[in-house]
Amino acid sequence: MIPNLCEKIIFKFPWYIVIKKLFLNFFNTLLFLIFLSLTHVNADELFNKGKEVFLGAGNCAACHMLSDAGSNAMVGPNLNEIRPDIQRIIMAVRNGIGVMPAMEGILTDEEIEAVAHYTSIAAEQ
User: Fold this and answer.
1) What is the C-alpha separation between 119 and 61, in angstroms, rounded?
2) Do 51 and 122 form a contact (C-beta atoms < 8 A)?
3) What is the mean pLDDT of residues 61-86?
4) Is the pLDDT reported for residue 9 higher than 60?
5) Phi and psi angles of residue 8, each rounded to the nearest 5 degrees, phi first
6) Nearest alpha carbon to residue 124 among 47, 57, 55
7) How far apart are CA 54 and CA 21, in angstroms?
8) Going by CATH, does the domain composed of 42-122 fall within 1.10.760.10?
9) What letter would DSSP give residue 1?
C-alpha cells in the first residue's frame, strides 16, 4: 500500500510544473537584479548635479582626469587614481590647493557639495 501511494505521488504528480515555476521565478529575479546593476545607483539628483558642475561651472574637467566625466586632462591629480573622499574634495574645492584656485564664492555651497558627492562616487568606479 505505501509503495503504491509513493509511486502515485512521485510519478503521477506534475513535477515539471513546480520546476517550471521555480525556474521562472529565479529567472525573473535574476533579470531584475541584472537590470538594477546596469541602471546603477548613480541616477540620484545630487550625483547628476555634481556631474554638471564638474563639467560646467566648476571647470574641473579642464584639469582633472575622471573617467565617468570623460575628462582626460592631466594638469591636476588623476581623480581615478587618488580616489579622494568627500571631505577632502570639499576642502580642496572651497580653499584651493596647489595651483587649483579656491572656488568658494564662485560656486555655491550646494554646488560644492554636489561636485564632491559626484567626484567621490565616480572616482571609485
Assistant:
1) 11
2) yes
3) 94
4) no
5) -65, -40
6) 47
7) 48
8) yes
9) -
**Residue 38 CA to chain centroid, in angstroms?**
9
Ranges assigned E (strand) in 60-114: 65-66, 71-72
Instruction: Name the more confident of 41 and 67.
Output: 67
> Which amino acid type is present at position 22?
L
The C-alpha cell 571609485 sits at 124
Can you state the percent helix, strand and coil of the chain, rounding each to 5? 65, 5, 25
| C-alpha cell read off for 115 | 561636485
Per-residue model confidence as pLDDT tens digits over 29-49: 766 666 656 555 455 899 999
Domain spans in the chain, listed from the N-terminal domain onward: 2-38, 42-122
Question: What is the pTM (predicted TM-score) of this model?
Answer: 0.66
pLDDT at 103 > cutoff 80? yes
The arithmetic mean of pLDDT across residues 69-84, rounded, is 94
